[in-house]
Amino acid sequence: MAVCVAVIAKDNYPLFVRTSPIEDELKFTYIVHTSLDVIEERLNNNNRPASDMRDLYLGLLYPTEDYKVYGFVTNTKVKFIIITEASNVNLRDNDVRGMFRSLLTAYVNVVYNPFYSNGDTIVSRSFDATIANILVED
Prior knowledge:
With 138 residues, this protein is an alpha+beta fold. 40% of the residues lie in helices and 25% in strands.
C-alpha cells in the first residue's frame, strides 16, 4: 500500500519517518519536506468554508511521476504524510483515509503514554507495528 509514512511535528521537524525500501529513505524524506509547503499553503488558505476547516484529511497533496503524496493534520498541527506508488490504481480515497485513521489512533496511543514527552521522536513497538501494517505490500 504505502511506501513511506512520516509524522511531522508542529514546528516542521520529523518525529517519525519509515520507508518500505530503506534504501530510498533520503528520497522520501525530501518528498516529505517538500510536501510541507503544500500543507502550509492549504492550512493558510482563508477561502475554505467552515465545514472544510474541520476536516483534518487534506487528501492528495500532489502527485509525482512515481508517487502520490497524501496529507493529514491533527488539531495540534502535527502532520501525517503517506506516500503511495502512483502505479497502485486499486487504492481509493477511502483506503487512504483508513490508513490515516489507524495512524492517528496509534499516534494518540503514543502521546497518551506518560513517559512520552511532546516533541520527542516516536519510539514505540505498537506504533511500529501499526506502521508496518500500513507499509505492507498487497
